[in-house]
Amino acid sequence: MTNGAEQILRVLLVLATVAVVTCPAGAQVVCLGASNTAGKGVSQQDAYPAQLEAMLRARRYDGRVGNAGVSGDTSWGMLNRLETAVPAGTQVVILQPGGNDARHRAASWRNANISQIVERLRSRRITVIMLENQVIGEIRRQGYGSDGQHLTAEGYRLLAAQLLPEVAAALGLPPS
Questions:
Q1: What are the average pLDDT values for consecutive 10-residue runs of the chain, which has 176 residues?
Q2: Extended beta strands in 13-63, E state
Q3: pLDDT, tens digit, for every residue of 123-145?
Q4: What is the pLDDT of residue 155?
Q5: Is 10 helix (H, G, I), strand (E, B) or coil?
Q6: DSSP readout, 56-81?
C-alpha cells in the first residue's frame, strides 16, 4: 500500500470512529415489570413490549423496546435488578409493578420500592411511564383477559396502542 493510500485509510478510520461515537445508537425503551410485561400466556412477539416496538417502528423509530418483565416479580425484585434491567442509553421506562407484592405479603413496601425505582431512574434522566394494574384490568374487562389476571395477544396489542402516544411523545416523535 502506498503512503498516500495509508493516510487516506487512516483518515477514513478516524472519521468512521468519530461518526460511531457521536451518533447515538437510537433511543431505547425498557418495559420493567411482572407477568403482564413478560407476556405470560402469549408468545414473546405478542407481549406488549414487542407489539409496542412494532408500532414505534411504523412511526420510523429505529430504537429497541426491551422486555424486562419477570413473571411473579415484586417491586422489591424490580428494585434489586434495576441496574441490569435498564442499561445505559435508556430514555424511557414503562414501569408495571403488578400485584405480586400483595401475594407475597410485601404490600406495605410496594410504594416505597416504587418511589425508589422512580427516583433512581429520574436521577439517570430517564422518563418513567407508570403502568398500573387498573389499566390492564380495564382491558381485561373488555373481554381480552386470558385467566383473570393476564391478557390475550389482542389485549396486549390494545395495551401497546394505549401506551404508544405517551411513549412516542417521551421519545420526541411527531404525533401520527
A1: 53 33 50 97 97 96 95 96 95 94 81 96 98 95 93 98 97 87
A2: 28-33
A3: 999 999 999 999 999 999 999 99
A4: 97
A5: helix
A6: HHTTT--SEEEEEE-TT--HHHHHHT
Query: Which residues partner with 15 through β-bridges?
Result: none
**Residue 152 backbone dihedrals phi, psi, to 5 degrees:** -80, 175
A 10 A CB-CB count for 153 gives 18
Please check whether residue 28 is in contact with residue 64, taking contact to mean a CB–CB distance below 8 angstroms.
Answer: yes
Q: What is the pLDDT of residue 6?
A: 55
d(CA 83, CA 160): 24
Q: Show me where the domains of the chain are located.
A: 28-167
Sheet with 90-96, strands from edge to edge, namely 64-69, 28-33, 90-96, 127-130
Identify whether the C-beta of residue 75 lies closer than 8 Å to the C-beta of residue 116.
no
Pick the CATH number of 28-167 from 3.40.50.1110, 1.10.40.30, 2.60.120.1140, 3.10.350.10: 3.40.50.1110
| One-letter identity of residue 169 | A
Chain position carrying cell 405517551: 166
pTM exceeds 0.90 for this model:
no
